[in-house]
Queue: 3 jobs
Job 1
Amino acid sequence: MRDIRNIARRVDALRRDALERDARHQTIYDARAQKINNIAPGSLPDAWPRPVVANAIDTAARQLAENLAPLPSINCATGVMTSERGKRFVAKKTKIAYSYVADSKLKKHMPTGCDWYLTYGGLPFIVEPDFAAGKPRIRLDNPMKSYVEYDLAGNVRSYTKVWREKASQLAAKFPEHAQAILGNSTTPFGRASNGDTELELVKFCDAKSYILYMPERSNLVLMETENAFGKVPVAVAEKPKWDDQARGQFDDVVWPMLARNRMAMLGLQATQQTVRAPLGISPDVQRIPMRDVAVIRTNSPEKIRRVGTDMPQAAWQQEAMLEREVARGTRTPASATGDVDASIITGRGVDALNGGYDIQIATGQAMIGDALERAIELCFE
């Protein structure tokens, strides 16, 4: 059995290095889930607990993921095959590779995986054994709270996944550790918790073993299995980056989108104040009827009006500017959603607008295709 203290220190170091990345992941998650108060507390009034503008990040991510999701063609030919035996071997190998993809139901899971790739900047492909079927399976893992360690050659050295689960569910899964998981005043693993308390779990994998342990229970090891494969069966598709930080496509769009929502809120507030503004009347009016077809008798009808507040022209300009910034940040042209200006009447103009959109899809397919190729190689091994 390996020393859990060394592994825990190793995982803690990985998590400390990824603090900034994890904060970005949580921010973009809250923005897509419309949990705005977690990002900017107090920015939403009580009467409007949700934003009043469309979630541009969620819309752009879903649309890009749907365009990025189709699987590439699979061909295991290494060169020109001249003999009939070689052709049959390549055809059989291609069918086996395709079976790994089909049996893993990647066609169904790729839209979600591509969404993770765009939103969080990475997509891990986990190769796991299916003992019932006697073959490997490829599983897409959520990049949130996942930590990949590489060696100097760029190969995966270790893979760590952190998540939270209810104590009652963990006690049912691991009855031999139920007392330590639930805890009580007599155990050294921490204070007692009810069944609904969520506890943190860490799954660590390297070339030597798989280990599942609980940091909140004094690094209690729930499961340890030797890695007979001798490799970390993980292939990661990462977005191109200019430093050592993995960044999603929409990290910088959160605040312009919140500012746009704030401008819309102010517009609603100004409209409400204008509708409910008091009446300004001339001094000769003695009676003010308050019905739908009311008649006010006065010698100066032009003086009767609501004392409203007109929206300044700069406010509309600011809202239009924020809308353009959000569209520019998501890298989604108007033509991608069908919102094409009428002045563009040729296909050449539409192609020019879609040029950057098509490039990022081609780049994403190249990154994901490379990771899928490495995952299939791991399946063959």
Job 2
Amino acid sequence: MTGLPRPSTAEGQAGLDALFADPGHALIATDFDGTLAPIVPRPGDARAYPGAVPALIALAKAVGTVAVITGRAPANVVRLGGLEAVPGLIVLGHYGWQRWQDGQLTEPEPGPAVEAARAALPGLLRDAGAPEGTSIEDKTHALAVHTRRTADPEAALRGLRDPLGELAGRLGLMAEPGRFVIELRPPGVDKGTALTGLVAERVAASVLFCGDDLGDLPAFAAVRALRADSVPGCAVASASPESPQVAAAADLVVEGPGGVVALLAAIASELGG
């Protein structure tokens, strides 16, 4: 495995070793924004990092399962990333609420709590004095309030944390923070449960997950739990100064989406994909 970065933990290295020992039963999953694609001010402007799609195509020929697990709608991620070119790709969107595979989308109906939050958010932002540039991203099964385009994103996020938390508590939702975003979504649905469910479905013998933000920490925790259940795994952080907690929780840290794509391409090359 020459040329591959080495994890800082023995458990992460064991996860990589297991992947190379039995690639046909390996699962490689990754977040999209900040991991496969650079963070941009407007979510609709996101695009996969150069080389990401070829790396995923090569991996799809070499390992048992390749997946993207994202907070976005999966159809949007497929379109923005050009991911329809990746054979056999599974995209779990809205933290597992929606699934895209072989061009087919499956999803349940959004719950009444999300509908109530959708109706309440414009008035809440107005009453809270949300600054210009604050935006709402409607994810159907969740709602994300972004402050990245405001004059002072950190101050704007601080000012909205309590009002959004109170709204979430009143409706039985979770208010999950991220990189200049707070997302309101139903409890019990996160990237950890999505990853664990996919590992069980695919009967994966090893797992590698790449992420960059606070919403990826449940998937990192799932990797650790799976290891305790005899499924070797490695958690990879796409380094970001905005979310140092993610790098601290990872087995392997790479430099942003470029580092993630280089890692995936190196794994595929090592496997002959």
Job 3
Amino acid sequence: REPVTETDVPAGDSDDAEPAEEPVLVPHRPAGKALKIVAAVAALLFVAAGAFAGATAQQYLSDRALVHTKLDVARTATSAITTLWTYTPDDMESLPDRAQKYLGGDFAAQYRQYIDAIVAPNKQAQVSNSTQVLGAAIESIGPDRATALVYTNSVATSPVTKNIPSLRYLSYRLTLERRDSKWLITEMTPVTSLDLTPR
């Protein structure tokens, strides 16, 4: 038996084989004018959208900071007025010390003088006073200065008047200044006074 050689293997029909396709090369063409305009507009829109988002976020944060400051002033004014005008015969002498943390400037000294002057007669008459803040509104506000309107309901009782309550609705305009991150009352002006005490 003769060995099989390479020439003995059928090579197939050469007419049926398809030639490999040659790749078609296209010459480079620069981007058209319209495409450049579209790309430029898209880039501008992206930058504008980023700037708008940044401005909106900055305004949002600024508004939130302002609201926080107004709330801080309103809370301080409410706590201060409640403390300044709520007392009993037993704790009236210490009232200026309790109120000191809310007061600043000349007003702190004026308030102390006023309380010192009424301690003796009020203790003798056994006067108790309770003040409730009904509302507070910010009139103006800046970085270190603010004005607020505070509306109160004040009730005083004394054995001298058979403990018949003295009812007064009072409102004050407060001037506050920020010192060391705290708001202090530097001026207090009465605005309205309505006495509803039974006669």
